[in-house]
Structures are given as structure tokens and as C-alpha cells.
């Protein structure tokens, strides 16, 4: 089995103090995609700078203390690339990809947006450019006989089943009709597969983000915005996908939970 995990750490230095390091010691993941790292590599705790069991590729943002993505892999990558060829976004700490034998894995932190502000305009520009990249990435992978997994915080709940209070959020960033339509294009036009939803077609959620406000976590009033989007070939080999939800609010080390998928790559 090959296990791939995606998690928005909501500030890796803070998460390291709350339980991230302990989780890293026990996880059986082969690849971990991190988002919202919000740290330069030299600012990382020693335990994260000197990982003995992992090969790490860090992609911090040029804006200090913002965004930042990374990929940790048990196996040394044969190639790593920061950004996707965007003049605007390649230094924003929002995308990194690595190549492993027969597989490309990417970590994505799509802008969250805010309706009626420049942040939403930025999100829409990112989405437009990134859709082109996703299309080209899949074409290159097919030509090379490779599979692709794009993990990350996509900051869009695709369907009503992907957030608890969908009726109240129809005009909110992350559930706007145009954002949901864009994600539909990723799936239906470009041909990626949402492996968690494929294995849990009729489930509410499983949610991967809960606000720290109120009792959102205790009431499971969350959003499913963290996805593992894959090419169809490897999607067919996904045998398990789940959210590693903490047992209690006190045990959370991020406002997101890790999302893990397992692939049986020995199957034909």
C-alpha cells in the first residue's frame, strides 16, 4: 500500500508545539503534503529541519509569515518544482510538486478569497491559471505513463454535502456558484477524480476543517475543502480514504485534519 496524506497545518511552528511532531512519528504515510506552513525553512524547529525519515521540499512564500507549502516523502524525489509557471503566483508559497517513480505528487494551497475584495479577485486569477496547469499536467503525465495526485487545501466546498451549513454560505467565499462550477470543470472536463468522495459518495462530509469559533468541532459543523485529486488510473487503485479527525477539540493541532488515501499500486 502507498499512503498519501494532505494537511493544512495552520502554521507549522504552532502545530509542532501542539502535536504535529508526535503525529509525524506515528503516521504510516509515504508522502505528506503540507499547506499554510507560514515559515521559512531556517525558522523551523530543529526536529523539522533535521528529519531523518523524510525527504523534504519546502516552498515558502515571498510574503513572510503567509501561505507556504511543502512535501515530505519517504523516498527521495527524482524531481521537484516550486510553482506552476505563473508570473504572479510562483513565489507565493502555494504550489510545489515532486516526481517519484511513476507518480507526480503536488501540494496546493489555493487562496481562500473574500467576497467583494481583492482577495477574491486574486483567487479567481489563481483558479484561471491553475486550471490550465492541471490540464497540461494531466496531458504530460499521460504521455509519460505517470499518475498524478494533487493534494491540498482547495478552499472550495464542491457540493452541499461538503459543508454542514451550506444554506447560510451560498454567498460566502468557498461555496460561491462560480467556485463550485470551477471545481466541477476540474473533475468533469479535465478528468481528475476526488477519491474521498468516490469512496464516500453518500456521506455528509467527511469534513476536514472546523472553525475554532464556538463549538464547530464538537458539533461537526465543518467544511470539506481538503482534497486529494488524482488521475483516473491511480484513482481506480484507491482502496481507502479517510479524515484523521482528532478525538477531542483539545487534541487538535490545526483547524484542519489530515486527509489520507491508500493506494494498492500492485493491482492491475
From TrEMBL:
Write the Enzyme Commission number(s) for this entry. 3.1.11.2
GO biological process: what's one of them? DNA repair
Q: Does the keyword Ribosomal protein apply?
A: no
Under the heading Pfam families, the entry gives: Exo_endo_phos
Q: Where does Mg(2+) bind?
A: 8, 36, 153, 155, 255-256
Which GO terms of the molecular function aspect are on file? double-stranded DNA 3'-5' DNA exonuclease activity; metal ion binding
Residues the record marks as active site: 109, 153, 256
Indicate the enzyme's highest-level EC class: hydrolase
Locate the site labelled Interaction with DNA substrate: 256
Question: Is Magnesium set as a keyword in this record?
Answer: yes
Stored SUPFAM superfamilies: DNase I-like
Q: Specify the superkingdom.
A: Bacteria
Site described as Important for catalytic activity, positions?
Answer: 226
Q: Which UniProt keywords apply?
A: Hydrolase, Magnesium, Manganese, Metal-binding
- Per the UniProt record, the site (Transition state stabilizer) maps to 155
Query: Which cofactors does it use?
Result: Mg(2+); Mn(2+)
- Note accompanying the cofactor annotation: Probably binds two magnesium or manganese ions per subunit.
- Residue ranges annotated for the Endonuclease/exonuclease/phosphatase domain, each copy included: 6-256
UniProt record similarity statement: Belongs to the DNA repair enzymes AP/ExoA family.
Q: In its UniProt entry, what is this protein called?
A: Exodeoxyribonuclease-3
Natural source organism = Kitasatospora gansuensis
